């Protein structure tokens, strides 16, 4: 015989007190919603942080000569002293399916001077046309225009502009130790001022067309320090880096392709910390739920003592009785799950597509040097939704173990004789 | 200000009964060495050779100095850098860039930056002749080294001195007061660089080391060598020579 009757008995018993069943199921459903939603929100916050943190300047993936980081010496260009086919490399990087855009960069350290004032700055040579697709730095323009390729034009942060008392149209002098040991120096026109929201960036970065910077520091046009890329999804960066490492290997020797997780390890650590925290949330929420379900099941089995006594008296084994109660609990879990999913998923889809604005609750804030917008952004996490579903069913069954065991040990004769 | 401070420091040594006579004379010796090398004023031409892992270059320059406070260096070759100049006045350093015809004051944050691509820093240019002001000086050794009678001195920074070294060791030959080497240590006592003096010869009427070699400890094979081709002392020069306007004037 199949175990069908025990399932049917369990299922039918849910209908015995529908209100009680519904309230318990709702409790479990809300627990399910709470876990899935909190994880989705935390992931939304994480994605926000990662996209902002890496999208501002770093990009989600970078290619360097393997000896470039961490010292960032001006000589350690991609392909070494001989340089490389920069365009070919950029094309190859951009061709990866997970890469949205890629752009070359050159870096140098030097002095930025205007009028009487001088400050130390990080000079960054970019392709003005392509850089905007990789990072947001050039989009933070507050005054003037971005430097045009091939011109001696420069764009500096708002704080640096304040320190130099310089404004759009002013003359700026750059002095930088060049790759041949000489002291590069030249005149530039301040074409624009940007604001990134990061104070240290606004005080120290100066952006100029990549060719102009190569000229200043005596680097040939085929020598660049970095190719930065934006991914379509930051979580794809690691796989893309692996693919690119082998795809680029024939094009230039000793390359290093690094996803943001290695460029910004502090962000990755935070992500790992959060993932550990999800488990704690699940345990807490369902630990509370266990008592709610146990209470319901105790009541449901207590009021059916006579029924169990009859079953036992008719020859049902105690094990079968236990099984009936567990089947009931499992069915309750399934109902709860359906209700929970019905509440959770439409809300998730809605908030994912139109994140509610929470600026009335909290303003912009920065986390690990990343600006986070005050929106309730949620991310889908199928794995988490499935795990939580299992946790819910497990909770329902675990909570019924004790009531089920008690039901199986009802003394038939005593119970039927009126007590 | 400086003179007052030096006077005060001098007074302290006279007044303080505990100050050993050894300390006073160690200081005196360094001061005397310093005066020999510097004179009241000086004018010379020199060649600086810089060898790094990545490039080698040589520049020739003309150097003027007045006391401990003023110095002017003007590059005369190679052609691409001809006319570049550095002016030191007190604690400040300006660079003149002929290509853009501008003068730039080196900000405090870049004082530890390289001077003209060499292993010397801007800070070295400012502090080169201020050892006796910034450091307490003690004998650490007196006797024979490689057959030559020498003194070795230990220079430890005075508590209030804004210097970058943890301590400096300095060796001076006894018979002619010529320095032979100076070793610069960081605050953890690790050797950072060694400055070696050699080719002692008569220039401008005095015995001076014509060659200085600077070897950074962490980059074996790299060095900066300064060789004096000519050197005159106590020339007719005054403060107006060391002005920003003079710095900009293309030729002298």
* Helix and strand composition category of chain B: alpha+beta
Give the integer mean of the pLDDT values of chain B.
85
What do the pLDDT scores of chain A average to? 88
Beta-strand content bin of chain B: over 45%
CATH fold-type name of chain B: outer membrane lipoprotein receptor (LolB), chain A
CATH class of chain B: Mainly Beta
How would you name the CATH homologous superfamily of chain B? Answer: Lipoprotein localisation LolA/LolB/LppX
CATH architecture of chain B: Clam
Query: How many structural domains can be distinguished in the coordinates of chain B?
Result: 1
Give the helices and strands of chain A as they follow along the chain: HHEHEEHEEHEEHEHEHEHHHHEEHH
Distance between the termini of chain A: 34 Å
Radius of gyration of chain B (CA) equals 18 Å
Instruction: Give Rg of chain A in angstroms.
Output: 32 Å
Tell me the total number of β-strands of chain A. Answer: 12
Number of helices of chain A: 14
């Amino acid at each position: 015989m199949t175990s069908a009757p025990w399932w049917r008995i369990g299922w039918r018993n849910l209908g015995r007190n529908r209100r009680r069943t519904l309230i318990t199921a709702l409790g479990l459903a809300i627990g399910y919603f709470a876990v899935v939603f909190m994880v989705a929100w935390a992931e939304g916050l994480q994605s926000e942080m990662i996209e902002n943190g890496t999208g501002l300047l770093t990009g989600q993936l970078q290619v360097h000569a393997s000896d470039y980081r961490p010292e960032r010496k001006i000589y350690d260009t991609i392909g070494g002293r001989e340089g490389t086919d920069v365009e070919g490399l950029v094309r190859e990087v951009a061709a990866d399916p997970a890469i949205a855009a890629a752009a070359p960069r050159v870096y140098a350290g030097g002095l930025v001077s205007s009028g009487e004032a001088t400050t130390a700055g990080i000079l960054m040579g970019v392709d003005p046309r392509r850089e905007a697709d990789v990072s947001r730095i050039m989009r933070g323009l507050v005054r003037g225009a971005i430097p045009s390729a091939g011109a001696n034009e420069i764009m500096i942060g708002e704080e640096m502009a304040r320190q130099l008392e310089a404004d759009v149209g002013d003359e700026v002098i750059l002095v930088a130790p060049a790759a041949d040991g000489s002291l590069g120096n030249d005149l530039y026109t301040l074409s624009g001022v940007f604001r990134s929201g990061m104070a240290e960036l606004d005080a120290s970065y100066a952006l100029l067309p990549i060719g102009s910077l190569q000229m200043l520091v005596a680097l040939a046009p085929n020598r660049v320090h970095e190719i930065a890329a934006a991914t379509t999804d930051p979580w794809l960066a690691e796989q893309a880096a692996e693919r690119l490492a082998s795809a680029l290997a024939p094009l230039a020797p000793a390359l290093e392709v690094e996803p943001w997780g290695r460029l910004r390890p502090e962000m990755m650590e935070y992500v790992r910390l959060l993932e550990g925290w999800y488990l704690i949330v699940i345990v807490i929420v369902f630990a509370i739920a266990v008592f709610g379900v146990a209470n319901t099941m105790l009541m449901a089995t207590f009021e059916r003592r006579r029924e169990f006594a009859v079953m036992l008296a008719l020859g049902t084994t105690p094990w079968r009785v236990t099984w009936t109660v567990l089947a009931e609990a499992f069915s309750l879990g399934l109902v709860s799950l359906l209700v929970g999913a019905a509440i959770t998923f439409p809300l998730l889809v809605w908030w994912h597509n139109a994140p509610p604005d929470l600026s009335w609750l909290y303003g912009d804030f920065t986390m690990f040097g990343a600006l986070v917008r005050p929106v309730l952004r949620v991310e889908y996490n199928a794995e988490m939704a499935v795990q939580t579903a299992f946790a819910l069913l497990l909770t329902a069954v675990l909570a019924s173990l004790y009531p089920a065991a008690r039901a199986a040990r009802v003394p038939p004769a005593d119970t039927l004789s009126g007590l | 200000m400086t003179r007052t401070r030096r006077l005060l420091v001098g007074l302290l040594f006279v007044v303080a009964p505990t100050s050993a006579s050894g300390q006073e004379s160690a200081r005196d010796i360094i001061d005397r060495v310093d005066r020999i090398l510097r004179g009241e004023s000086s004018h010379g031409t020199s060649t600086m050779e810089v060898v790094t892992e990545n490039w080698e270059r040589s520049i020739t320059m003309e150097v003027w100095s007045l006391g401990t406070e003023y110095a002017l260096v003007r590059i005369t070759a190679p052609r691409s850098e001809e006319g570049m100049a550095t002016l030191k006045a007190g604690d400040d350093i300006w660079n003149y860039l002929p290509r853009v015809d501008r003068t730039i004051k080196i900000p405090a944050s870049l004082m530890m930056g390289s001077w003209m691509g060499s292993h010397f820093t801007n800070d070295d240019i400012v502090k080169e002749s201020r050892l006796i002001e910034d450091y307490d000086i003690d004998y650490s050794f007196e006797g024979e080294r490689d057959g030559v009678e020498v003194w070795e001195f230990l220079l430890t920074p005075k508590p209030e001195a804004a210097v970058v070294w943890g301590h400096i060791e300095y060796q001076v030959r006894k018979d002619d007061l010529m320095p032979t080497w100076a070793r610069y240590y960081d605050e953890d006592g690790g050797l950072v660089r060694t400055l070696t003096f050699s080719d002692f010869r008569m220039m401008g009427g005095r015995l001076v080391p014509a060659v200085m070699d600077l070897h950074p400890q962490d980059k074996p094979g790299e060095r900066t060598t300064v060789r004096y081709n000519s050197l005159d002392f106590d020339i007719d020069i005054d403060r107006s020579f060391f002005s920003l306007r003079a710095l900009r004037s293309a030729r002298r």
